[in-house]
Fold this protein.
Amino acid sequence: LKDRCDGCPDNRHIYPSSYTYTGTPAYVLTNTNKGYGWIFVLSANAQPVKNLHITASYTRTEQYEVTGMPGNAANSVFVGLPTVDGPNFATVQPSQYVQPHRLMASVSYKLPTGTNLSLLYNAVTPTGYSFIFENDVNGDKNIQDLIYVPANKDEILFVSDQDRDNFWAFVEQDSYLSSRKGKYAQAYAAHAPMTHRFDLKVTQDVKLRLGNNVNTLQFSCDLFNAGNLLNNSWGVFKTMDSSAKSGQILTLDHLNENGQPVFSTNLAEGAHTWTPSNSIGQAWYLQLGVKYLFN
């Protein structure tokens, strides 16, 4: 392995042209003691008046690992791992599956008439995304190379001023990339904005006497993602926008006469990272139910 060039800000190791990541279909996977994590939970419960119950909690999760095993076979685990210097030199990185922040709260009140009112709040930061090159930038025959985020607009070379402007505008509008200027992007460290949701539940109990027993007929009405009923942009998860090219935002175009890398980007003018999901599960919906409870 060798460095790209003296003085290049992205000075990751470059593999020789004869390198192949495997000469046989056999892979050697070993355990590691690298990685760590912690979870912090803060919760509170209160009953300020009779039949009124209030709960709230906040969960902060940090988890770092060498690999989240992104595949169902040894080959996909190996080639699917985003790294700077190749999967054989994987370092500890943010976990692929962690949701860093979660807020939960509920308020419930029972009326003397047998009516129960409940309001539930849930807010979560989704799992992370990675920003990688569109092609193999270090010659390891693996297209999962994490990008270097330039410290300023002119630190790396581009094939055109338009490519430079489009890329830098994208960096500036993205909070994670802006925080990594002059550093390599981390795997799975870019998170969409936190999503806030409210659910409303109303139940009505009707007592029924059958002989010596008193049973309950319960009618229920659940309004899920209630805020979305008021505003169609509320309570909607955000995913990576198609203009962000699934995070593959840089391409090594060629090396100039001095051996310096020259990059291009497939980002169009006005490209942005996040967009609301249009899946049916993001819309509000109503559920009606009837339940018979034996004494």
Observations:
- Helices lie at 74-79, 161-173, 175-179, 227-230.
- The two ends are 74 Å apart (CA to CA).
- The first strand starts at residue 2 and ends at 3.
- The chain has four helices and 18 strands.
